[in-house]
Amino acid sequence: MKRQVKARKSTLPDVNHPEEKARQLLAELLLREQRIIRMRFGIDSEVYAVKEIAKVLQISEAEVRAVEDKFRGRFRQTGPT
Fold first, then answer.
1. Residue from 77, 45, 46, 51 nearest 64 by CA
2. What is residue 56's three-state secondary structure?
3. Do the beta carbons of residue 67 and residue 37 sit within 8 Å?
4. pLDDT of 1
5. What does the longest C-alpha to C-alpha distance in the chain come to?
6. DSSP assignment letter at 66
7. Which residues contact 44 (CB under 8 A, 6 or more apart)?
8. pTM for the full model?
9. Of 47, 49, 78, 79, which has the fewest beta carbons less than 10 angstroms from its beta carbon?
10. pLDDT tens digit string along 34-59?
């Protein structure tokens, strides 16, 4: 009879995976910015358009785009560690 070994999850995030890198960067944002990014990219919810996010959060579309651009820029700048 073969013994099954349970795999353990590492406690250190693997920043070589884009999803983990995105979650790390997301944690560094303000709560409002996090909400915008989560809605925009469908993280833990459905994907929303810029116009929809602006309406729901009662902010301008330019503000939504600015947060998205900031996040994308930081995502591109951070490489594997």
1. 51
2. helix
3. yes
4. 53
5. 63
6. H
7. 38
8. 0.71
9. 79
10. 999 999 988 888 999 999 999 999 99
3-state secondary structure labels for all residues of 8-45:
CCCCCCCCCCHHHHHHHHHHCCCHHHHHHHHHHHCCCC
How many residues can be counted in the chain?
A: 81
Q: How many CA atoms lie within 13 A of 11 on its CB side?
A: 0
Distance between first and last Cα of the chain: 41
Please check whether residue 39 is in contact with residue 48, taking contact to mean a CB–CB distance below 8 angstroms.
Answer: yes
Distances (CA, A) of 12 to 16, 23, 24, 37, 46: 12, 13, 11, 23, 28
